[in-house]
Amino acid sequence: MSDSMSPITGLRYLGLAIDKFDATVDFYTRLWGLAIVAQEDGLAYLGSPIGSEQFSLRLRRSAQNRVDLLAMSVKSRADVDALAGRLAKASIQIDRSPQALTTPGGGYGFRFFDCDGRVIEVSADVASNEPRAALPHEAIPRKLSHVVFNSADIDKTTRFYAEHLGFRVSDWLENIMCFLRCGPQHHILAITRATRAALNHVAWEMDDIDGYMRATGRLNRGGYKTIWGPGRHGAGDNTFSYILDPSGNIAEFTAEMETVNEADWVVRRFGLTPEAQDQWGTGGSPTDSMIPTMLSAVDVGLWTAPPV
User: Got the DSSP string for 145-197?
Assistant: First the structure.
């Protein structure tokens, strides 16, 4: 696939199976700022009241933590069918053929396994949420910003998303993290070198710096201290505050992600200097708890489709 022709238009939601279901739902609603869109026994769909997507996080009660799936969007049903056909032709394992979706907002989509065994859903024609205006000083996430995955073979995984989904490399952090885009946002996906495939972290976008700081403070006052941040990255130029949720997943508040000018963008390679990792120098050391937590993650769900 041409590296300038990605059919992917963005992220819809991340699906997680979690062992501390009630506490994690409470965390993401009471403190993180999401709202329950739909709920059934052991399954909760959480979305932003000010965002256009129906939901950005799906939580499923489980005895073991795992990534159930990452959902992405395309423009049309024709794009769904075309991409499913191309992946099948390339011998990519399809989990669910194109079909009507029964999740909030409906739509039409399919699922497949990436080269590391994660389930990826691609969909179109999902009904948009009718967002309300943000209230003064409300400080809630507007959308899913980006997801970062660990991989034992960063080059192979990066190549998979470039060749089969048309993602483009924006930047590298040394040779340990690759930032991938499908549009003007610097990255919606990143791949980190690790000993095994797993979730590294998931990030939600705030409207501005003030909202980002207010949300960070709300978590801190609620008993959840940042494990890294607040700060501002070099690659992507986005702000960051990383917090460990009750089930052990790393979630991030971010704002002001860099925008790529496609016509003249040149891939950069950032070093591991303190300034490249945190321009402000306010976040503290990532090696204390952040990096060990990120790289120790385990995903027991690889190459196994979730039950829903």
Answer: EEEEEEES-HHHHHHHHHHHH--EEEEEETTTEEEEESSSBS-SEEEEE-SS-
Per-residue pLDDT reduced to its tens digit, 51-105:
999 999 999 999 999 999 999 999 999 999 999 999 999 999 999 999 999 999 9
Return d(Cα 82, Cα 78) in angstroms, integer: 6
For residue 220, the one-letter residue type is N
Domains belonging to the chain, first-starting first, are 10-124 (3.10.180.10), 143-295 (3.10.180.10)
Conformational region of residue 284, where left means phi above 0, alpha means psi within -120 to 50, and beta covers everything else:
left
With 0-12 / 13-18 / 19 or more C-beta atoms within 10 angstroms meaning exposed / middle / buried, residue 124 is buried
User: At 48, which helix (H) or strand (E)?
Assistant: none
| Half-sphere exposure for 112 (CA within 13 Å, toward CB) | 26
Upper half-sphere CA count for residue 159 (Cβ side, 13 Å): 5
Strand partners, 231: 240
Please state, in angstroms and as integers, the Cα–Cα distance from residue 157 to each residue in 2, 164, 180, 191, 227, following that order. Answer: 17, 11, 11, 7, 27
Residues in the chain predicted with pLDDT less than 70, given as ranges, are: 1-4
Task: Count CA atoms within 13 Å of residue 98 on its CB side.
Answer: 18
Report if pTM > 0.85. Answer: yes
